[in-house]
Structure formats: structure tokens, C-alpha cells
């Protein structure tokens, strides 16, 4: 026998240096690059925050890195003026409506696309997809007329429905990707066990794709929250969203940059909160479930 | 090819060596001789893959040294160690053809083009990949892909050893057999030093000249397949190798006899001297070494619980006293339904003290 | 995955079809209707056939907006795709640092388009913005309200700032799907960092990068709010992209007929280019 095992505890030879110089330097490039990029990315946002803490006069006279005479006056104005804070409520309500509508129609459709072949499946899928490519500018006037005609103009529902134009195709696409990752055997087993389709879908299948649902909701939130053109066209007074309130304030009261910056900062916060909740799924979600 | 020595190796993934329970590898000393085929056998999480990755340099050990032909390579990066490694799942460069895949390690080492072409052709010939050379690697089956992974190792003339990390996991059973034979052939032809990690004992026993059994970061036993089978030096090895594994019966020494629930056996004086008081003793015997006692005056009575057919033989689940045992019975032997006698051939009946082998009852 | 043929699946997609038909097909029909009529007011419409299409296709303003749009999409794709891949390569693969970096990285994607415009409008102002001031301090005359080149730089940098994270996150998702064994095998094979990128990482990122190119092309081709807020399409019409031009025609000048014809051509161009990408994407993911 040529191998030997020893159990005697020999003194361990000194720990050799773990990192070689070259490995260390090439490893440092990544963090430096990332750090620089994040600086590039955060600086404009910092600038907005800085301005939101300043008075109009100071803003126009200073480009110092730190805010001069910082105060929360601008935020106070927004939180005490119903025209301002109600516009946040309006925005959030059409975004929430849009997420609910989109998910409730996209879930069964995505299931159909991931599980069945049927007449025209590929064409319908591409047709849905084309709507994601449609420039909202194309639909401005027709939407205005359509929603006026059915009496939905200036309601959150109008904006929520209009945003379905690009969110529904995207939701079907993402969900189809996630659902295709669930083995078919699960469906078959459930049917053999005597589950009806609705019961199987709601109690067995949906919990399995909840990460996908979360990611989809995130995307619907994102694209609905950031959109300006349709939201602006389909509302006037009652349902005015924050993005529109900001553009109109600019023209009405001259340029109150401080107030505008504060309103801008407040539009970033909901997004930041949502990102935090989906941070672990976000990478996969951005690949639309296809990785 | 080279001799590989592992010298007082210890490894912990979090770098903390103070807690022995958390170590991936606890104190390993081994020598892998040049040109032999070794199997590294053990249950998942026993440290066998860590050992492999440390030899190839993918993982840097916490302490200890790795020597190739007497040269310390502990601080050499993987690409300088001249090691070939084949992984559990085939790794291929999808955008390349089979030929480019095979040439890749040589290209990276900047060999002359005609040299590369010659070697790739040789390796393709050896692995029967010739007709596939111009094909895209991504479209092939798992077995071909794994052959290409192996080919990328063999194409380098200077490899010190070829390491395999459960390479046949994703291969169909009938192709598995074929590949295993091919591997054995190549080993004999090229005189490769092979280290083959597996948790499949039949793979280990058929492929290797020597088998190293690991458990919980330690080497339990190293030896030929026969040694491991007939004289496991630790109850773990006895249990782990063989199907069903070795029978173990807890017992105690009383004078010149080993007493256990349901009977006793004579204890040779030589063996008796190597037992110290307070040690827990076990008798170990392989299922096929248990014999039906037809002497007419059976000393030890067994009850039959169940018979399991195994093709040309049966495995009988028995009970002796309070201990369950397995016994292999040839097809043509009928076991009585009533309690019957069994005998323990002394040559094959081993005694373990605190789970370590101290000898057989034939001493 | 094996799919079964079952036409009853249509019942499952019916809600989507109805909803999208309501919000896309009906409005699109209206656009088609406008595009072939001359409208003076309620009740005063005349069918004029393809006149508006001819006019739009001959309009030099439209030509210039189209070229500008192509240039813009080309430039931002050429910057954002490589930069996004680079950022993805620099991201830590796992752990809290990775999560934190992702949260920061994703932030611009959730800022409303007009707020993105507002941020850059302020940030790039020579007298009060950090970006504008730093560039002027470097001795380069920079004023996006007066100088077309400054305006373009501002818009492009803004778009890079806004959308590179999307590319980075997509590329990161592709990178994370590569099993460790690939990197280990590459080390065994003695592959250099460049070879690892070229032969392992890039092929594995191919499908996600196709998605990135597709999304970035579509969205950059439709860009409206961000440049509109920053430059209003100016100075002159230096940053008047297709959507800005379209909205000016439809809302500003109320030229419904030409605007509708323009819309349809615009939509068709996007559709055509996207169809090419989509086909490539299908082929890539089929592999």
C-alpha cells in the first residue's frame, strides 16, 4: 500500500500569503469602477435633494456643493397644500389600479401561453408585444377622445387603463417566462388529484410563481409611475397626478425650483421603497424571467 | 505525470481553524503515486470535492502543503499547476466547435499552430471524437460533452494528474458503462494519474487501483478495493461500502468470550490484550460471510424477518437477540421459518474497539 | 417545454385580448381614420386618401427629426450597452454589497420621466448645476439652452444616466446564471480574463443583451418627456425627436390629419425594426 494516513498532529507550516499582488490589483478594478459609476449616478439625485432644501433665491445664486441655509420649507408647503399632496394620492391610485388590472388579466393569459398551443398563439403574442412598442405619443388624441366618450376622462381609471397598453404585454411576457420554469408535472399531478382549474390555479400554481408576480408588479409599478405623456393628456383637475402637477406648477408660479425639487424628491421615494422590497429578485426580473 | 503529496492539509471555508467541527478538511496526509488510478469516495459534504479543488488550486487551503514531485505548488495558481479537471456537469465553450474547444487550453498557452493541430487530432482519435470535430459543441449530447471536457484535459501533454469530480452524474446508465471502460483504457494506455471523486461505491471499486474513503473532512481508510471490502479499518467504511453494508453487533468482553445479546463468540487472547477497558466493542461481519449453522448444536439462534430477492441470491433480514442483521443466502439454500442457527467464520469476523478495527477472531 | 394543443386556452387569453383591443385597436382605428381625412371642425371632414402620408414623407422637418432620432438611438445604444456590461461585470455576485449596489443602481429607473428631465435641467445648468459648472470650470463653453452640441451632450448623458442601469441589471442577470464550474474550467484551461469574457460571459449574456438592445431601441426611439423638459426640443429644433415633433403637430398645431399619418409611419418603423430584433431574440433563445 502506497498511501498513508496519519493522524499525528504536525505543526502546520506557516500560512503563505493568500493574495498575490497581481490578483489584488485586478480585483480592485471592479469596486473602483462600480464606485465611480455609482457616484456618477447618485450625484444628480444629490443635487436635486440639495436644491429641495433651499429657497429659490439661494438656488439661483449658488452652485456650492452643500446646500445654503437648508430647511424643510419646500416639503412643508407640499404636505400642507391639498393640490400638491392629493396629486400624489392620484398618482398612487392609478398606479395601484393599473397593477391590479394588469395582473388579473395577464396571469391567466401567461399561463395559457406557457402551457398550451392554440390557434394563433404566436400571432397574438407578437401582436401583444407590438403594443409595448407603440409610442404613447401616437395614442394621445385617440385616447383623449375615447376616454372622453365613455366618460372616464380625468379619472384615475382612465390613466390606469391607458397604461395597460404597455404594461399588459410586458406582464404577459415576464410571467410567461417565470411560468415556463414551473414543471408541467405539477399541473398534471394536481388535475389527477381532482383539483378544478380555478382551484389549482389559485391555490397551487400562483404561490409557485409568486416571485414572478412580485417582479411583474414591480415593473407595472415602475412603468406606470414614471409615465408622463398619457397621464398628462387624460387628466385635468380632479385626477391630476404628481408628474403633471410638477409641470403645471412650473408654468403657473414662475420657476420655484426649490418646490419643484422637493416634489421631485418625493416622487423618487416610492420607487426606492419598492426596489428595496424586490431587491433579491430584481436581477432575474430584469431578464424578464428568461435567465 | 507526477507524484502528488498532501502534507498536513487543513481547510476551512471561513478561514477559522479554531473550531474543528466547522472544518471542511481536518488534517489530511496522503500520497498519490504517479500513474495510478485513485477513487475518492464518500458521502456528500465529506470534503472530497474540496480536496480535489485544493489539488487543482481552485481553492487555496487554509494550512498545509501540496507537493508535485517534491515541489511545493501551494502558492501556484491553477493555470500553472498542470492539472486537468473534469466537472460534474460538462463545461463547454458553446460558441466554439469541438475542435476549437479541444484546442483552447493549448491556444491559451500559446503553442505553435501545427503542434496544436497534431495534438487535437490525437486526442480526438483517442476519444472517438474525430467525426464531430467541425461541429458546434453546444448541440451535442451529455456524454459527448463530457468526453470533450476530458479531451481538454488530455490534450495537454504536461498534466500532472487528471481530476474527475463525479463526471458521470448526468450520463445515461448504459453510456456510463462505456465511458468508464474508455477511461480505464486511457489510464492504462497513457499511464495517467487519475483522481476520481464519486459517491458511488461500485464506480469507485471498479475503476480505481486504490480507493480513499472520506467522511466529515477526514480520510477514514485508503487501500485497494479488496482491503476496503474485507478489512474495513473503521465501522464507517464497513457500513458505507457493500450493499447491504457490514453487520455490526455491539458486544462486551467477558473473560475469553465476546458476549452480545443473543449469544457469544470465543475471544482470542491476542485480541483480548489490545482491548482497553471502557472501549465500546462491536463485532463486524459481511452479510455473505454469515453461515447457516448445520452442526446440529447451534450456539447462536437467528429469527428470519424478511427475505429480499437480489437476482442470483437473497438477502435475509435476521434478528439475533436485539440486533438486526443482513445475511446473503444463495438461491438454492432454503431458510427455515423457525429460528435457526448461524455461525460466524472467525477469519471473517472482525472486532472493532471504538469503531476502529483491532483484528479478526482467527488471531 | 412540451406544450399541449388546446384551443380552449383562448378563454384564458380573452381578457387580455379584450383589454388590449379596447386600449389599442380602437384608438389605432381612430388614428387610421384621421390619417385619410382633412378635418376643419366637427362635421367638416373630407376624405383625402393618402395625401397626408405623401406630405409627411416629403416633409424635410420630419426627415431631420427622423435622422436625429436614428442618431440619438444609435449613440445611446453604443454607449449604454458596453457601459452596462462593464458595470454588471463590476457588480459583486452575491451578498449584501450586491443587494445594496442593485438598489442604488435601479434608482433612476423608478424616477418619473419628467423628474429625470427636471433633475438634469438643474444639474446641467452652467450657473447653478454641478455638471454644467464643472464642465465650464474645465474651460469648455457649455450651455445647453443656447448651444446645440451642449444640448445633445446633456440629453445623451442624461439618457445614459437614466437607462444604463437597465442594461447593467439585465447583463448582471445573465452573468449570475453562469455556473461556477465554467469559471473553474476556464482557470484549468489557462484562459485569460479577456478569453473568459469572450468565450464564457458574452455567449451566456447573449439572450439578455438582445432583450436589452430591443428595449433600449424601442424606448429611446419613443423618448419624449426627458428632452422635452430639458430643452423643449431646442435650441432651434436641435433636439426635436420624433415624439416631440409628433406632439407638437397634434397638440400644438392641432394638425390632426398629418399628425395621424405621421403616427402611423412612426409606429410602422418601430414595428419593423422591433420585428427584426424580436425574430433574432426568438432564434437566440431557441438555441
Structural class label of chain B? alpha+beta
CATH class category label of the largest domain in chain B: Alpha Beta
Structural class, from helix and strand content of chain A?
Answer: mainly alpha
Structurally, the number of domains of chain A stands at 2
The stretches of 5 or more residues of chain B where confidence is low (pLDDT under 50) are none
Pfam family, one (chain C): BPD_transp_1
InterPro entries (chain C): MetI-like, MetI-like_sf, Sugar_ABC_transporter
Transmembrane segments (chain C): 12-36, 70-91, 100-123, 160-178, 259-281
Domain ABC transmembrane type-1 (chain C): 66-277
Write the layout of secondary structure elements.
The complex is a heterotrimer of chains A (291), B (363) and C (287).
Chain A: H1 21-52, H2 56-61, H3 73-80, H4 82-115, E1 116-117, H5 121-133, H6 136-149, H7 156-180, H8 184-192, H9 197-208, H10 210-226, H11 229-233, H12 242-252, H13 257-278, H14 282-286
Helix pairs in contact in A: 1-13, 3-4, 3-13, 4-7, 4-10, 4-12, 5-7, 7-10, 8-9, 10-13, 12-13
Chain B: E1 4-11, E2 25-32, E3 37-41, H1 48-56, E4 63-68, E5 71-72, E6 83-86, H2 98-108, H3 113-126, H4 142-154, E7 161-165, H5 173-190, E8 194-198, H6 201-207, E9 210-215, E10 218-223, H7 225-230, H8 235-240, E11 247-254, E12 257-260, E13 263-266, H9 269-273, E14 281-285, E15 291-292, E16 301-310, E17 313-320, E18 323-330, E19 340-343, E20 350-353, E21 356-360
Parallel strand pairs in B: 3-8, 3-9, 6-7, 7-8
Antiparallel strand pairs in B: 1-2, 1-4, 4-5, 9-10, 11-12, 11-14, 12-13, 14-20, 15-19, 16-17, 16-19, 17-18, 20-21
Chain C: E1 4-5, H1 9-35, E2 37-41, E3 44-47, H2 51-58, H3 60-90, H4 96-106, H5 113-123, H6 130-137, H7 148-176, H8 180-188, H9 193-221, H10 225-231, H11 242-252, H12 256-286
Antiparallel strand pairs in C: 2-3
